[in-house]
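User: Here's a protein and a ligand (magnesium ion). What would the complex look like?
Assistant: Let me lay out the input and then the predicted complex.
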Amino acid sequence: METAEIARRFLSFFEKNGHTVVPSASLIAEDPTLLLVPAGMVPFKPYFLGQRTPDYSTATSVQKCIRTKDIEEVGKTSRHATFFQMLGNFSFGDYFKETAIPLAWELVTTPVEDGGFGIDPEKLWVTVYLDDDEAAEIWRDKVGVRPERIQRMGMEENYWSMGVPGPCGPCSEIFYDRGPEYGVEGGPEADENRYIEIWNLVFMQYERGEGGDKGGFPILGELPKKNIDTGLGLERLAAVLQGVDNIYETDIIGRVLHRAAELTGTSYGDDHDHDVMLRVVADHVRSAVMLVGDGVKPGNEKAGYVLRRILRRSIRNLRLLSGESDTLFLHELTTVSIDAMKDIYPDLLDKADVIHGVIDNEEKNFADTLRAGTALFGRAAERTRQAGGTQFSGSDAFQLHDTYGFPIDLTLEMAAEQGLTVDETSFRELMQRQKDTAKADAKAKKLGNADVSLYARLLEGAGRTEFLGYTDSASESQVK
Ligand code: ATP
Ligand code: MG
Ligand code: MG
Ligand code: MG
């Protein structure tokens, strides 16, 4: 089943069950505590917190999400993307566990010809929170899941709260068993690679007080109105229903992956390291398209930096795969990604020119940065090795940053490829010193202490010396 069809079926199932279909919100979070939306419930948060009242008591959506914290997992696990879509159904003081659990099961197991996803119940396992007997009973008695297929999980996995006083409660998750070739028997408790998490059902049941997040907070009582928030990973379900090994090989992301292999002259499936890189490229290009589509521009801070980092990681991986440093690959891959996503997001077609403009420009700037800095990097790495060291100095990393605009991420990665570490502590000290100096200078200027007139006259006389070191991405000093 195609990804777009899975999304349609999900919405229509919940619509038939009385839910209002709510379009995805932008990736740029309205919530000031977040940069980008990491979960389907985010746009509904004010309703869950009782700050606003919705026009409906139940809703369903396919929400665009970005999880930057998963970036290092991408391509290495079978299931983590930076951009993904969360299918969700929500109840605002309407139905609770007794309805949410059977509805989820019904959709997942109803045969395809009858509008469901047709997953064999024998392939499914579920988890509930340690003391949530209520949920366990619903799974066992109402749904008919065998007791040995219901596992109990602790705080870390199966408890939800926002980290602050407010609503909280247990979760229950549905897992798909990919079979013995993916790992050991024993349910999600035993192997998270073999048993892949597809759907999280959150039961907002209690009011929590102040305290640490790992259970170190008091429960103040039951919420007067209990809520449901669920999240089903669209790409994960697509991988299951399409019978592929991982989310990067599904119909949409897979198209970018295979085109990237063609363009770089590699062959997917031949070499583990290359495969990881191809998966990273496929994931990251798509995330970049979606971020730019929602108005994010590459920059050195916040969402802009997330985008820049994602684009630079794609470019680096494409260079490593192809062994070429002069070819620009992103234009073509962006075209493929937009084409693959246009059924779900037709607005991408109208925005295609803008998306290409932003991505092409960043790729070109980064190529200039790399060209300028790579020689210096090579010399510094050589010096380090000749001195018998394995640690790239903080001052070299700082110079690369300051003069050539190398983000520290990039230096770390390039050093690691050569078996070197980087003295990050001294790098950060130098960054701090530079910041302090800049601050002091600014202050001095404000106080009118600096006599710039002589300097200005000198410059006029001598003609300005052109400083060639910087690229437009030179200053990343705000980046933490
Ligand atoms: P995992 O344990 O596999 O990292 P999670 O517990 O962090 O997943 P949730 O926060 O429960 O995930 O999110 C709800 C659902 O969203 C998950 O069950 C999964 O299907 C999907 N999902 C979460 N993170 C990702 C991701 N990085 N890429 C793709 N899908 C994801
Ligand atoms: Mg996770
Ligand atoms: Mg999990
Ligand atoms: Mg989860």
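Summary: The pocket of magnesium ion (ligand 4) is lined by residues 173, 197, 200 (CB under 6 Å).
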